[in-house]
């Protein structure tokens, strides 16, 4: 049995959920044991149950994380991740995807071990699907 990986996500239109499912398939292909969970059903207290984690959130508003459900869970989790490898992913539909740059900077400032980030413009195309599977493999092998 490979690394246990929590894939924690929030989705508005379904694009980030589709990305989470592709990431889940990538973890399985890489020999890991994934658990796909909506952010509303996850808490920082569960982080220690996993070897690695992936967090998915689309760009919202002015290039921000979703603030009602996702951001409070992310803020709590980032403090207890320790050295666990983490992937950040999500979709966007406007601007340049700067929310991911900002999110990665936020993670770096909290000393989160981010091994990859993956973005998709709207629904994940073949390139985004391939990037998610590659990121999943990197996470499982980290």
From TrEMBL:
<comment type="function">
    <text>Low-potential electron donor to a number of redox enzymes.</text>
</comment>
<feature type="domain" description="Flavodoxin-like">
    <location>
        <begin position="5"/>
        <end position="142"/>
    </location>
</feature>
<dbReference type="InterPro" id="IPR010087">
    <property type="entry name" value="Flav_short"/>
</dbReference>
<dbReference type="InterPro" id="IPR029039">
    <property type="entry name" value="Flavoprotein-like_sf"/>
</dbReference>
<comment type="similarity">
    <text>Belongs to the flavodoxin family.</text>
</comment>
<dbReference type="Pfam" id="PF00258">
    <property type="entry name" value="Flavodoxin_1"/>
</dbReference>
<protein>
    <recommendedName>
        <fullName>Flavodoxin</fullName>
    </recommendedName>
</protein>
<dbReference type="GO" id="GO:0010181">
    <property type="term" value="F:FMN binding"/>
</dbReference>
<dbReference type="GO" id="GO:0009055">
    <property type="term" value="F:electron transfer activity"/>
</dbReference>
<keyword id="KW-0285">Flavoprotein</keyword>
<keyword id="KW-0813">Transport</keyword>
<dbReference type="InterPro" id="IPR008254">
    <property type="entry name" value="Flavodoxin/NO_synth"/>
</dbReference>
<keyword id="KW-0288">FMN</keyword>
<keyword id="KW-0249">Electron transport</keyword>
């Amino acid at each position: 049995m490979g690394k246990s990986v929590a894939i924690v996500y929030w989705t508005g239109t379904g694009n980030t959920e589709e990305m989470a499912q592709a990431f889940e398939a990538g973890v399985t292909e890489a020999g890991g044991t994934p658990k796909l969970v909506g952010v509303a059903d996850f808490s920082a207290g569960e982080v220690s149950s996993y070897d690695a984690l992936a967090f998915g959130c689309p760009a919202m508003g002015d290039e921000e994380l979703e603030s009602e459900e996702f951001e409070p869970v992310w803020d709590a989790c980032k403090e207890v991740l320790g050295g666990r490898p983490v992937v950040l992913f999500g979709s966007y539909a406007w601007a340049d995807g700067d929310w991911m740059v900002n999110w990665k900077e936020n993670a770096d400032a909290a000393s989160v071990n981010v091994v990859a980030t993956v973005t998709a413009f709207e629904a994940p195309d073949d390139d985004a699907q391939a990037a998610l599977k590659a990121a999943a493999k990197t996470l499982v092998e980290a």
